[in-house]
UniProtKB/TrEMBL annotation:
Sorted UniProt keywords: Hydrolase
Occurrences of domain Alpha/beta hydrolase fold-3 (ranges): 80-286
SUPFAM superfamilies: alpha/beta-Hydrolases
Name the record gives this protein: Alpha/beta hydrolase
Superkingdom of origin organism: Bacteria
InterPro entries documented for this protein: AB_hydrolase_3, AB_hydrolase_fold, GDXG_lipolytic_enzyme, Lipase_GDXG_HIS_AS
Classification of source organism: Bacteria, Pseudomonadati, Pseudomonadota, Alphaproteobacteria, Sphingomonadales
Pfam families cross-referenced by the UniProt entry: Abhydrolase_3
Family: Belongs to the 'GDXG' lipolytic enzyme family.
Molecular function via GO: hydrolase activity
Length: 315
């Protein structure tokens, strides 16, 4: 019998009792509005933090909006670049505002959240290109950050986990400061294989297989694009030389198996990996913190794992 945490079961029961339309049926614009509304009901607000400000980052197609979070006095330090989830189609700085602030508070890191271009307005590889450019910019200690950057890490959930893996592959060993870690939170890392968990949790567990496939083809419309390592980082020939990784999967997630596979491939390549699977948890849980109080401990553990990976990298 599949284990489901009590608070997760309560949320699933609530969603089953009042089902909403599929994002794939709504389309991108209405889907973004629904996602934002869901977050305002089911996630926690930003809360108190010393500094939050919007900045603009030079990108390959113009300025990339971003938001800086800092809960300490800036002098110098490591910076975490965060890429939001949402299937490369939905999500933005507002949908992940509370989560980004909590990571900055709990980690003591400056967090820079990136509002990369999304599909269908900007298809593959626009999101990847923006995230690579933004990370390069942060690593260069631009004056806009207000502190000297001593190291960089990347993190992201779902599609943001995909983009974190892509950035790590593209920029490992290529930055002016150490690339200290990558935190992949229930990542989407493969658009090619029909993973068993996609069918096991195809329906009734928040993210559905149909919606995931719609996200993939909206972002990367052709098979050639979906096989590219900038879309499917699991397809990389080798993962040797990557920054230390923290990989978190959810036990009730269609993306579970590909996340497991990526963690295993990193480890096989000699990369330091901390792997955690959140038993009884659905996809997107870190944006459902008001509805899922049990997830607070998992988020705290993930942040501690990230800091440990960064400190080990610096040793």
């Amino acid at each position: 019998m599949t284990y489901v945490r009590p608070d997760v079961q309560a949320l699933l029961d609530q969603m089953k009792a009042a089902p909403g339309p599929s994002i794939a049926d709504l389309g991108a614009v209405a889907g973004r509005e629904m996602y934002r509304a869901m977050g305002s009901m089911l996630d926690l607000p930003r809360g108190d933090i010393a500094e939050v400000r919007d900045i603009a980052i030079p990108g390959p197609a113009g300025a990339i909006p971003a938001r800086l979070y800092r809960n300490h006095k800036p002098k110098s330090g490591d910076v975490l670049v965060y890429f939001h989830g949402g299937g490369w189609v939905i999500g933005d700085l507002e949908s992940h505002d509370g989560l980004a602030a909590e990571i900055a508070r709990a980690s003591g890191l400056t967090v820079v959240a990136i509002d990369y271009r999304m599909a269908p307005e900007a298809i593959f590889p626009a999101a990847a290109d923006d995230c690579i450019a933004a990370t390069r910019w942060v690593a260069g200690s631009p004056a806009e950050l207000g502190e000297k950057v001593t190291g960089v890490a990347v993190a992201g959930d779902s599609a943001g986990g995909n983009l974190s893996a892509v950035v790590a592959q593209a920029l490992a060993g290529q930055l002016p400061v150490p690339f200290k870690a990558q935190w992949l939170i229930y990542p989407a890392v493969d658009m090619v294989e029909d993973w068993a968990s996609l069918d096991e949790f195809a329906d009734d567990y928040v993210l559905t297989k149909a919606v995931m496939r719609w996200f993939e083809v909206t972002y990367a419309p052709t098979a050639t694009q979906r096989h590219d390592v900038l879309a499917s980082p699991l397809r990389a020939t080798s993962l040797a030389g990557q920054p230390p990784a923290v990989v978190m999967t959810c036990g009730l997630d269609p993306l579970r198996d590909q996340g497991r596979a990526y963690a295993a491939k990193l480890a096989e390549a000699g990369v330091s990996v901390t792997f955690r699977e959140l038993a009884g948890v659905v996809h997107g849980a870190f944006n459902l913190r008001a509805a899922l109080p049990s997830i607070a401990a998992d988020l705290k553990r993930g942040i501690a794992d990230l800091r440990a990976a960064m400190e080990a990298s610096a040793a």
